[in-house]
Design goal:
This protein is of the alpha+beta class. The protein is built from 1 helix and 5 strands.
């Protein structure tokens, strides 16, 4: 257990580095701020993304359905400046990053290593 972290992991901070389809990356930290095992996980992003993400989990059929609600803003000044002009490009890039993440998560789940 790391300093500032409780036994369930609340207070733990992980650094994420996302490569995008465009020539920039996003680096940010996520702090676990709440957990209800097998039901809900809440994290606070800070750094180049700032906001809250909530994962909710529940039974569905013979498996588990996971929903992720992510309310974040970018903090890079140049991105904030160009959003009004490049919104479709950023939306496309977001879609690419999310599809890559989905494929990576599916691969990890198939290997039972998550």
């Amino acid at each position: 257990m790391r300093p500032g972290q409780d036994p369930d992991g609340v207070g733990a901070i992980r650094r994420l580095h996302w490569k995008t389809a465009l020539p920039y990356d996003l680096v940010f930290d996520v702090e676990l701020i709440a957990i209800e095992p097998m039901h809900r996980i809440e994290g606070r992003a800070f750094g180049e993304l700032d906001g809250i993400g909530v994962w909710t989990l529940g039974p569905e059929g013979g498996g588990t359905v996971v929903r992720y609600d992510w309310q974040v803003d970018v903090t890079k000044a140049w991105m904030r400046l160009f959003v009004p002009f490049l919104r479709p490009v950023f939306a496309w890039n977001h879609g690419v990053v999310m599809r890559r993440g989905e494929a990576g998560l599916a691969s990890r789940l198939r290997r039972d290593t998550v």
